[in-house]
Amino acid sequence: MVNCLLINMDTFPTIFPPGGDSGLTNSQSELQKMLIDERVRCAHHKTNYQTLKAEHTRLQDEYIKSQHELKRLLKEKQTHQEKFQLLLEELRGELVEKTKDLEEVKLQVLTPQKLEVLRAQIQQELETPMRERFRNLDEEVEKYRTEYNKLRYEHTFLKSEFEHQKEEFARILEEEKIKYESEIASLEKDKEELHNQQLKVDPGKDSKRIEQLVREKLHLSQKLKSLEAEVAELRAEKENSGAQVENVQRTQVRQLAEMQATVRSLEAEKQSAKLQAERLEKELQSSSEQNTVLISKLHKAEREVNTLTSEVSHLNICFIL
């Protein structure tokens, strides 16, 4: 519309005639000035209009961009709020789990007072029976040692007695043997003399002497048989005594072996009880170390719970803002 006015005003000089009086010329000059001024103002307004239009377009574009940026920021804010909400729920769940774990660890952890009570209880339950058992084992070992020494002394005494009786029997047997051999030699000599005398003398004159010698021979034969029976009896007694001594020796050896086995068994049982006591002491020490580890875990869990609590509080503040 402004352009149309400018075009129409440009046609004004052609309407008026070029000649005329001075008044008309002055009017035309003023009119020309007015038209020029109007053209300048129109050009200025046109420039301002173009500038305002460009600025308006730029502002509209910036407004649209701002609207899009605002929508994006709102969407990001909603997304962050949802993430914060999920993170908050997750941290709350972890806090609940850590709290439960902390309570469980607190239940598992032994305080120094509980540990001392448990140590005293275990010591009372184990030490008293062990001491009683050790005392009984020592008494049994001492008893078997005394019996062993007694049997050993009896064995030595019986062995020396057996050797003495054996030597005595051998001496008596040798003496009896020498005695019997001398008597047999004497009888053989008498027999030989009687035989020689019988050959030299008349049998009818010395019949009484022969009968007497026969009676003496019978008596000596009976005495010889009696002595042989006595020797056989002594030999039987010797063999019986030897068998008894051997039986006693075997019995004593068996009893000694049984006592030695019993002593070894008691020593092994004592050693086993000692090892068991050492093992229980190690288990108690291991339990104490585990208790220390649980206490450190408890402190660590408490620190984690405090950290999670502070994080949850911080997230709650951020969520509120």
From TrEMBL:
* Subcellular location field: Cytoplasm, Cytoskeleton, Microtubule organizing center, Centrosome
What's the superkingdom here? Eukaryota
Which InterPro entries does the record cross-reference, listed alphabetically?
Answer: Centro_Cilium_Assembly
For biological process, the GO terms are: cilium assembly; establishment of centrosome localization
GO CC field: centriole; centrosome; ciliary transition fiber; Golgi apparatus
Residue ranges the record marks as coiled coil? 42-108, 134-311
User: Which keywords does this Swiss-Prot/TrEMBL entry list?
Assistant: Coiled coil, Cytoplasm, Cytoskeleton
Official protein name in the record: Centrosomal protein 83
Q: What is the lineage of its organism?
A: Eukaryota, Metazoa, Chordata, Craniata, Vertebrata
